[in-house]
Specification:
404 residues, mainly alpha, 18 helices, 2 strands, 69% helix, 2% strand, globular
């Protein structure tokens, strides 16, 4: 039965505000600002030294966006989500046409990284498409959802940015699972995906035994797996970490192996309580490359300076925030709000898991930032906006009409 919507009031919003979510985000942003300062303190460039101030300023704007979205009913906002989705696709196309080239990849246009925005756009679009009471649940809906997923993923892969593209997949499939869309097609696709991952890893492992020149090796493997040369090397270094120390290894400092090795040393040398704020040797001496220490490898700086205790504090805060998002999700009777929160929770978990696993050597090196802590304006604003939608579900989800 539909419930009668109550008029919005500031006191009512405060009463339903999820304070755990808000406080957790503020603590993570504060920690991120502090350790970006530490990571950039040895740099000579004034612009880089001031990145911690930029992080704080973007966080302030993000907090305003967060509170604004929280005050507006998410169902009202999501009615035009298809416009947001198509606009994001336009930005992804613009990146490929005249985006900034950095380190062999095109990921930014107009000082914005559209691939980060695209994750939220896909979540909002599918939440509205699959969460409505009259939404389809058959194979056609499943294929339509895959189409919504495939277009931005294909554009992101062209940049190329494999790490970001892979985050879309578990996020969307978690939403499909919760929405119970065509279980047979869902599990068939999951099985095919697992088989594809096994095939890629097996192909890279077998290719190590080929006695051919590098050009032939890379071209053959690209045909078999679809991975480009640097992506092949990152997977190979992950599968065979000992080979970077072998005589005549292809490139001991390339493809992330140097960064990965120095990151592991930084994390391991922090001990229980760390070396102290702004006292991490790997960062201060430049072994952990300065160009990655404040973004992709910020967790390495944090672990070295704050130790195991600091690392566990960060993990506890992330668990608190993700737990708060899931609490809102499964306490919401509305399917749209539920799916929105599930998508945001899985997206954030993927970022945290992949980034930290990468820094400790459990996964290949990839360019995924650590939410709220890594330097990066687009990612921070997008995550704050995503959490604003979750807070809107916490406040307005109880007034929603259709049950899931």
């Amino acid at each position: 039965m539909n419930t009668v919507a109550r008029p919005w009031s500031p006191l009512g919003a405060l009463r339903h505000l999820n304070w755990v979510l808000l406080v957790g985000l503020c603590l993570l942003v504060a920690i991120g600002t502090a350790f970006i300062y530490s990571a950039c303190s040895i740099r000579d460039e004034k612009a880089v030294q001031g990145l911690y101030l930029r992080h704080a300023q973007v966080a302030a704007v993000g907090l305003a966006v967060y509170l604004t979205l929280a005050c507006v009913n998410y169902r009202t906002l999501l009615r035009g989500t298809w416009v947001f989705y198509l606009g994001t696709l336009s930005l992804l196309v613009a990146v490929l046409v005249f985006g900034d080239v950095n380190m062999g990849a095109q990921r930014r246009v107009f000082h914005v990284q559209p691939s980060e925005i695209a994750k939220l756009a896909v979540i909002l679009f599918l939440a509205w498409f699959l969460g409505r009471r009259d939404a389809p649940r058959g194979t056609a809906a499943f294929l339509a959802a895959l189409g919504v997923l495939a277009v931005p993923v294909a554009l992101v892969l062209q940049q190329p940015d494999l790490g970001t593209a892979l985050v879309f997949v578990p996020t969307v499939f978690a939403m499909l699972f919760v929405a119970n869309v065509s279980p047979r097609a869902f599990w068939t696709t999951v099985a095919i995906g697992v088989a594809a991952v096994v095939w890629v890893l097996s192909a890279v492992a077998i290719a190590e035994s080929w006695e051919v020149d590098k050009k032939t090796h890379d071209s053959r493997l690209q045909v078999m797996t679809g991975l480009q040369g640097f992506q092949q090397e990152r997977v190979a270094h992950f599968l065979f970490p000992e080979r970077e120390f072998e005589k005549g290894a292809k490139n001991n400092r390339g493809y992330g192996s140097w960064n990965k090795r120095q990151s592991e040393i930084a994390v391991g040398s922090g001990g229980v309580w760390g070396k102290g704020f702004c006292k991490g040797d790997q960062n201060l001496l430049g072994y952990l490359p300065p160009r990655v220490s404040f973004n992709d490898f910020i967790f390495s700086v944090l672990s070295e300076e704050a130790g195991f205790a600091g690392s566990m504090t960060i993990l506890a805060l992330y668990a608190l925030v993700i737990g708060a998002v899931l609490t809102v999700a499964f306490g919401c009777p509305d399917g749209v709000g539920k799916l929105l929160c599930v998508g945001v929770a899985v997206m954030m978990f993927c970022h945290v898991f992949v980034n930290i696993a990468m820094t400790v050597g459990l996964l290949p090196v990839t360019g995924l930032p650590l939410p709220f802590i890594s330097s990066g304006g687009t990612c921070l604003l997008t995550m704050m906006a995503a959490m604003g939608f979750v807070q809107s579900v916490a406040i307005h989800g109880r007034q929603s009409a259709p049950r899931f």
